[in-house]
Amino acid sequence: MMATKKILIAFAVVLLICLSAPGARGGSYAVGGRVYHIGSDGSVSTKSGILVSCYNPDTNELSEAYTDGSGVFNLGSLREGHWTITVNYYENTPGYNDYQATANAGWSARECHTSVVFDGKMWVLGGYDGEGLKKDVWYSTDGVNWTQATANAGWSARATHTSVVFDGKMWVIGGEDKKDVWYSTDGVNWTQATANAGWSTRFYHTSVVFDGKMWVIGGIDEEGDKNDVWYSTDGVNWTQATANAGWSARECHTSVVFDGKMWVLGGYAGYPIYKKDVWYSTDGVNWTQATANAGWSARATHTSVVFDGKMWVIGGQDGSYKNDVWYITMWGTVPLPPLEYDFYLSGSAQFNSFYDLRTSQTYFANDFSLTILGRNNKSFQELGQPLPTVTLQPASWYSVEGGYPQGDHLVFYRLPYGAYTLSVTHPNYASYQASISVDHTTGSKTVTLQPLQYALGRVYSSTDQNPANVDFLPGLIAKLTVLSTGENRLRQVDEDGYFEFDAVPLGEVEISIYGSGYSGHPYRCTMGAEGVTVDTVAAGNTIYACGTVSGEVRDNENKPVPVDGLTITLAGELGSWTYHAYENLGVGSFAFERIPVGSYTLTIADTDYQTHAENLTLGHAGYSAGSAGRVLLQAKQAEPPQGGEGEGVGVGIKGIVLVAAGVGAVVSIVLLALWMKGRKAEEWETAPPSMEPAA
Predict the structure, then answer these.
(1) Of 114, 224, 188, nearest to 158 (Cα)?
(2) What is the pLDDT of residues 531-572, one digit of tens each?
(3) Of 166, 232, 239, 615, which has the fewest Cβ atoms less than 10 A away?
């Protein structure tokens, strides 16, 4: 038995240690995002080749990723806990800077191969090394040290093909005399997507992934060099973007996506004319020349990738085979201070960061969605009213695009993390102001404005105090008259008995309800800035404005008096009502609801209390009985009994007897006290009490 206990205790200790270990609690959540660049003209583009990292100081875990051609990064699944995300932005400066990483990479000198960045590595696939076509696959994390993944890929040995990373896979596209498309998730196992792509059989072309598509750019087919551009979203179906791009028809060039653009670098412009020009485009149709004279030698059959915030030129030939590696910091790059943000991960998180060229500032930002509703939680489009005015302070950081693109739905785009003051104004509603905090969890907010200068109400079918016997009267006509101008407005009472008037001028107004056999009793009230709510009720065939008479009954000790033991009545010209507790309002509370406006007498009676009678005038805002809604009942005083002279004498004699009895009681108490004192003295003489302090 003792052994079993020891085992259970040991198990509990191990379990406690496991549960208390860092990162042991909670689950794992996906973390990713996008990196943006804001140009000097305010245009927004994505930023590729940016290193993003996430570090957990409690567990020493680190996850890193580079942004792809669409500026997207994926840090994988991270465990719940405290993390710091860092974005390593850089700033472009005029001019080219070219650097050589190595003059002798691990793979054999070759040309017409392809290269991609996948799974945190640069890859080299196939090509021609002077001895024959290759189908080997290599990878590297630094451009210097290379490892062979396989010497025999699934696709046939080839050169002059292209490769991209798309949809979580590496793709091999075409090649000499080929128009097939292959993909792989590990560089070893390959699957054929199609044997017959839409573009003509070609080789020495280039391919990139941009704007959610795979692109095929230029190359050569049976007719000669090409400068057409094609794209596909699945590798099977292809669409021609242009048949004649801005750069000269060419082959054996390279293409990458960098700085939110597609780039074309070098190549042959008709063999053996080597090129060292660089072009870029944002749509595949319109192309701009960045330079006609890059730092590396004019060459073709090389490869290029974007890695570590740089464009790379790898190998190729300029009349002789090359195995040199160059990287280009476009127009030069100057690293900016790392952009960091500390957060607690408790669910999937997306982080969007921005570099604003206009202010040279980097910041994390999120979109903030705002929905604004008016009266009865309806949109302003439904109410037929103009849209509110919305401001957000400080205002220098954000942009609002499209106004209200979805009716009453407003989106603040690219709102930097921080605290803001939100203000909403509308001529017919009370102003709204609130503080909001924007971070990676910020999503949306709904604001319901409180109406100003309105008149609304509801039409009840009966003054019966039992709610179960009361319904609403739809389909009637509500009439409002502005007394200062004589303007009349009509509204139909809706199916739920409601009526409403918008933007009523300040001052005296008159409201009446009529129709379907009912006549209206006009009711006058003052329209203030807060508007008015006037409920109405049918009494016979006439509809009156109505209100509520309420109060709380207490006794002279200020304690609630149960109303179920009282008789509470309300009487006036239009009727009389006795209170019944149909609804539980509290021990001493009562309420007469749906009572037509007018003069009444409220009576509260009980056998133990003096009767309370109160005259009152009831308006649409209601009436609180007593003082500030409290009615204090006074207890009834006891009356002396009635009798003759004999009875009076009897009472006198009783009084004397009572007095005598009282005197006798006092004397007895005094004698008892003296006797006790004597007894105590006798005890002291025999054994006097000790005056020493207790031990």
Answers:
(1) 114
(2) 899 999 999 999 999 999 999 999 988 999 999 889 999 999
(3) 615
Percentage of the chain modeled with pLDDT above 70:
82
Q: How far apart are CA 597 and CA 618, in angstroms?
A: 5
**Helix, strand or coil, per DSSP, at residue 434:** strand
Q: Are 229 and 245 in contact (CB under 8 A)?
A: yes
pLDDT digits 0-9 by tens, 91-103:
554 444 445 566 6
Q: Tell me if residue 383 falls in helix, strand or coil.
A: helix
CA distance 632 to 611: 10
Does residue 475 come out as left (phi exceeding 0), alpha (psi in the -120 to 50 range) or beta?
left
308 DSSP 8-state letter: T
In 10 A of CB 655, how many CB atoms?
10
Mention every residue, 6+ apart, whose C-beta is less than 8 A from residue 669. Answer: none
Residue spans of alpha helices (H) in 329-424: 380-383
**What is the distance between the alpha carbons of residues 409 and 444, in angstroms, rounded to a whole number?**
10
Q: How many helices (H) and strands (E) does the chain have?
A: 3, 54
Inter-residue long-range contacts of 94-97, CB under 8 Å, 24+ positions, other chains counted: 94/331, 94/332, 95/331, 95/332, 96/291, 96/294, 96/295, 96/328, 96/329, 96/330, 96/331, 96/332, 97/295, 97/328, 97/329, 97/332, 97/333
Q: Give residue 398's pLDDT.
A: 46
Contact 176, 252 (CB under 8 A): no
Torsion angle of alpha carbons 14, 18, 21, 23, nearest 10°? 170
**What is the number of other CB atoms lying within 10 angstroms of the CB of residue 330?**
24
Q: CB-based burial of residue 574 (10 Å sphere; 0-12 exposed, 13-18 middle, 19+ buried)? A: middle
Q: How far apart are CA 128 and CA 110, in angstroms?
A: 5
Q: How far is CA 660 from the centre of its chain?
A: 87
Cis before 405? omega within 30: no
Q: Residue 111 carries which DSSP code?
A: B
CA dist., res. 21 & res. 215, Å (int): 49
- Run of H or E including 133: strand 133-140
E strand or H helix at 671: helix 645-686
One-letter identity of residue 131: E
Could you tell me which residues are beta bridge partners of residue 444?
A: 369
Distances from the Cα of 194 to the Cα of 43, 173, 300, 369, angstroms:
38, 10, 28, 43
Coil, strand or helix at 5: helix
Instruction: Sketch out the chain's domains with CATH numbers.
Output: 28-89+336-359 (2.60.40.10), 98-334 (2.120.10.80), 365-448 (2.60.40.10), 455-544 (2.60.40.1120), 546-632 (2.60.40.10)
- Tell me the average pLDDT across 347-360: 87
Rounded distance between C-alpha atoms, residue 59 and residue 79, angstroms = 10
What pLDDT does 460 receive?
A: 96
Tokens linked to 674 = 């003296």
Distance, in Å, from the CA atom of 511 to the CA atom of 192, rounded to the nearest integer, reads 78
- Residue length, the chain? 695
Using only the alpha carbons of the chain, give its radius of gyration: 45
